[in-house]
Specification:
4-stranded antiparallel sheet; 16% strand; 4-stranded mixed sheet; alpha/beta; single chain; 917 residues
């Protein structure tokens, strides 16, 4: 055994071991090693954005993945944990554009042009894009870094183009003019899933319009967006609304623009809500999804009054043209007031869609976009419904199924420049007229349109489609495109990685991207691989602060994980995070949990050092010590049974993805059962003179520590590796079973029936030890009752009701901190001596010389008086019929519990007073 240093220094240990793991290629997967005896385990990392830096959310997600990967290695599997990053089209372009504007290199992207801007983004990516992957190493992530992928790698990009061409030929992809979510900041379309609904306080504006055919008849309309009135092409009422049905077919005069107060038809449409506003709806087909549908039903004209950047155009009228949309709102209200059309405005709270990336309210906008009809829907829905693919927690299966049953075509095009450009080329002779034609009419253009992975042979005569794909259109291929898939069936058979590791085993992700990513990956898996992409999906919770707010930089409530690692160590952060992360539930972040993780690591370190401080037998390594059943005490047998229970409990929890339950079991076993009870009890032998029993106790300790370090390794990789080698557990192990690294040591198995029989371990042995520990607890309670410090040695007397060995008595003495402990069958205690009835007999704590009896009597009398008063007070309340009838049942139960607690306290104090004489 190498000597373990007095204190644990995480930073030194973590850096040294991580580099050693890398040098020894411990994380690298080899498909050639996969066999029936060494099955594959694979997991692909949810690729973080290249703009990303490590957050506590990443800590949670990647710690879980690392636990799964490390345990799989210990179970003898060939493990591929494949890392990589996502190009994050909109987010990355926003970051680089912002930096370029700040540096004065451009005012608008058009100043640079597409090629120059994309080159700048590549430069930024090469410099900063790998930061988060480097940071994951500090966490201990055991990814196969040799296989790191990027969604814009050349091979991956070709996969995206091939998939588009394949779907286009199958008729799943089309181009058309549709109402989409538009981000005025990023100047691109967004999918519904990229829109975040936020509650917003605003106003409901009421304005009046006159019925053209009935001068003097006015209708009042309520709207949250008066700036869009110039784009109105009708007003709608519900045909079942008796107030307005007779007006259907007539017209009103639109108040804005003032210079063009056009007459608009009054249409009847059952979409109109009787209850909202006044029951009269302004219809703006170009700027509202529901209005657009009404417009289609009634063949209404469409007037787009807004530029892509959210500034009003000339169709909004001379007063609003050139004005930003929210300023235009104020100006429109002022104009309506000026022309006496404004009736009133009142506060109104509603949900407004925000661009997730741009951070601004989205605009519904009519735009030519590429759309996808989802493929392989039935298989993807059935695989979860049947349970073949399992979700953890399983409640997400219902959410998934609901979404799959209500699919809308996916807008896959984006109007940014960073990303995979749509592989469609238009001959210059038909461009740009073709862009306004739906794809259903493209056949007539013959060979003037080229859809393919490679550009046309004469690219100088062609114009490529300007759009790029939605980022998620690339990442839905992640489980297989990262493993070398190329849509060539013959070559697929030769791809050893794909053949060995697909489908993957687990996916760990957040429920917020169940539709963005998980559902789409499932569909892609069935469409191109003919099977599911992963067998289990674990959905993490969201980390929140103590006020329930999601951690974010903008709120300033999100600590830097690297600072926490520097202060406490990576193992401490991992353990603290997992201990507070129930299956799929949100997590309340508290730095105290990380402190708890550090304290736990310190406890583990000190426990191993304690073992080293006991002299090793004949210089043998820890693994050479054999347990001799003849010398096992009931304490030894107890800890072996508790270890067995911990192995079963932790293994079952991990099989069911209950990571917090696993950490709680580890914590309880090691801190309480091993350190607090067994190690202290073992001192009775270790401090004795019996060399054989001492050697046997050390062998038990080594056995427990060897198994414990392996149980802890997936959670605490660094400290367990250091202690594994420090204890010499690696010395007699084959290289691939723990000789090189603990990460390849076999996962612990509980003792089987033959082994239990060999050691002579019976259920009554566990009970015998448990009886001792219960006796100690009761003795410690006697100390506490009389305010006697736990570190003060005091006399105890045990009047046993069973036969106890000298070793048992010595264990009790040490654990009670008794000096002395007398076992006297015929002991007669002086009247009033504090006594506890224990499983081993009566335990007495003689008080002579321990306390100031007069002072203690006064203290107890004072507490007794208080308890009596409190008991009378609560009983008086409970006796009051009015109180019992009026208060909620919960309050009544609380008072009844209070009565029981004070009554028990009173009896205890009476007993103490009697003992004091």
């Amino acid at each position: 055994m190498a000597e373990i240093s007095k204190t644990y220094t995480p930073s030194e240990v973590e850096q040294r071991w991580y580099q050693r793991w890398l040098d020894d290629k411990c994380f690298e997967a080899d498909p050639a090693r996969v066999s029936d005896k060494r099955p594959a385990y694979s997991i692909v990392i949810p690729p973080p954005n290249v703009t990303g830096i490590l957050t506590l959310g990443h800590v949670l997600n990647n710690t879980i993945q690392d636990i799964l990967a490390r345990r799989a290695r210990m179970l003898g599997k060939e493990v591929l944990w494949l890392p990589g990053t996502d190009h994050a089209g909109i987010a990355t372009q926003n970051v680089v554009e912002r930096e370029l504007r700040k540096a004065g290199a451009m005012k608008h992207r058009d100043d640079l042009g597409r090629e120059a801007l994309v080159n700048k983004i590549w430069e930024w990516k090469d410099k900063y894009g790998g930061i988060i992957l480097q940071q994951l190493r500090a966490l201990g992530a055991s990814c196969d870094w040799s296989r790191t992928r990027f969604t814009m790698d050349e091979h991956y990009s070709k996969c995206i183009s091939k998939v588009f061409v394949d779907l286009y030929k199958k008729g799943f992809i089309y181009r058309g003019k549709r109402m989409v979510n538009w981000c005025p900041a990023a100047l691109t379309a967004l999918s519904d899933e990229e829109v975040e609904m936020k509650e917003q306080k605003g106003f409901l504006y009421y304005f009046k319009v006159e019925v053209v055919e009935e001068p003097g008849t006015w209708l009042t309309i309520a709207t949250t967006r008066p700036e869009t009135i110039p784009g109105d092409t009708a007003v709608a009422v519900n045909p079942k609304d008796e107030r307005y049905a007779h007006l259907i077919g007539k017209h009103i005069r639109r108040p804005l623009p003032v210079e063009n107060q056009a007459p608009l038809p009054i249409v009847g449409d059952e979409h109109v809500d009787f209850e909202f506003g006044t029951g009269v709806l302004k219809v703006t087909p170009a700027h509202d999804k529901a209005d657009y549908e009404i417009g289609l039903r009634h063949k209404l004209p469409i007037i787009d009054i807004m530029q892509p950047n959210g500034v009003m155009n000339e169709l909004a009228g001379k007063d609003l043209a050139g004005v930003e949309r929210f300023e235009a709102r104020k100006k429109a209200v002022a104009i309506l007031t000026e022309i006496a059309a404004m009736v009133k405005e009142e506060p109104h709270t509603n949900n407004v869609g925000y661009s997730e990336r741009g951070g601004v309210p989205i605009e519904p906008r009519l735009s030519e976009q590429w759309f996808l009809k989802y493929p392989s829907q039935k298989e993807s829905r059935d695989v979860v419904a049947s349970g073949e693919m399992k979700f953890f927690p399983d409640r997400w299966a219902k959410v998934y199924d609901h979404w799959m049953g209500n699919l809308q075509d996916w807008c896959i095009s984006r109007q940014v420049w960073w990303g995979h450009q749509v592989p469609v080329w238009y001959h210059k002779s038909i461009h740009p007229e073709i862009l306004s034609k739906p794809t259903s009419e493209w056949a007539s253009y013959g060979d003037k349109i080229h859809v393919g992975v490679e550009p046309p042979a004469d690219p100088e005569n062609w114009v490529q489609d300007n759009d790029v794909f939605d980022t998620w259109f690339s990442s839905w291929l992640w489980p297989f495109a990262t493993m070398g898939w190329n849509m060539d069936g013959e070559q697929d058979d030769k791809n050893a990685t794909l053949k060995a590791f697909y489908p993957t085993t687990d996916l760990v992700t957040g429920p917020d991207i169940i539709f963005f990513w998980v559902a789409r990956m499932i569909m892609a898996g069935f469409e191109w691989m003919g099977e599911l992409p992963f067998k289990n999906v674990y959905f993490t919770g969201i980390i929140r602060d103590k006020q329930g707010r999601k951690l974010s930089k903008s709120l300033g409530n999100s600590p830097d994980p690297l600072d926490l690692i520097a202060s406490y160590g990576a193992d401490a952060l991992r353990f603290g995070t997992m201990k507070s992360a129930p299956l799929g539930a949100d997590i309340v972040y508290d730095e105290k949990n990380v402190e708890l993780g550090r304290n736990f690591c310190t406890k583990l370190w000190n426990a191993v050092r304690f073992r080293q401080m006991q002299q090793p037998q004949d210089g043998a390594s820890a693994t050479e010590q054999e347990i001799n059943p003849e010398y096992l005490s009931n304490d030894d047998k107890w800890i072996l049974l508790r270890l067995n229970a911990a192995i079963r409990e932790v293994s079952a929890a991990l099989e069911e993805y209950r990571f917090s339950d696993a950490t709680a079991a580890l914590y309880r076993f090691f801190w309480s059962e091993y350190c607090d009870w067994y190690v202290e009890a073992s001192k009775a032998i270790l401090q004795g003179e019996d060399a054989l029993r001492k050697a046997n106790t050390l062998a038990v300790i080594d056995f427990v520590l060897g198994n414990t370090l392996r149980l802890f390794h997936p959670f605490l990789p660094f400290i367990t590796e250091e202690l594994w080698h420090g204890m010499g557990f690696n010395e007699d192990m084959p290289e691939n079973q723990g000789g090189k690294s603990i990460m390849f040591a076999p996962w612990p198995k509980p003792l089987d029936e033959d082994e239990l029989a060999h050691f002579g371990i019976l259920p009554e042995d566990e009970q015998a030890a448990a009886n001792k520990y219960e006796t100690v607890n009761l003795g410690r309670n006697l100390r506490s009752t009389y305010n006697i410090a736990s570190n003060k040695r005091v006399r105890f007397v045990l009047k046993p009701n069973t036969t106890l060995t000298e070793a048992d008595i010595e264990v009790l003495r040490i654990l009670l901190n008794a000096e002395p402990l007398h076992a006297e069958s015929n002991y007669t205690a002086p009247k009033g001596t504090p006594t506890a009835l224990t499983p081993l007999g009566e335990l007495f704590l003689p008080l002579e010389g321990l306390i100031d009896v007069d002072a203690e009597r006064q203290r107890v009398t004072k507490e007794l008086t208080k308890a009596q008063a409190e008991l009378e007070k609560v009983r008086a309340k409970l006796a009051d019929e009015n109180f019992a009838k009026k208060v909620p049942a919960k309050v009544l139960d609380e008072h009844k519990q209070r009565e029981a607690d004070w009554a028990a306290q009173l009896e205890k104090l009476k007993g103490m007073l009697e003992a004091l004489g």
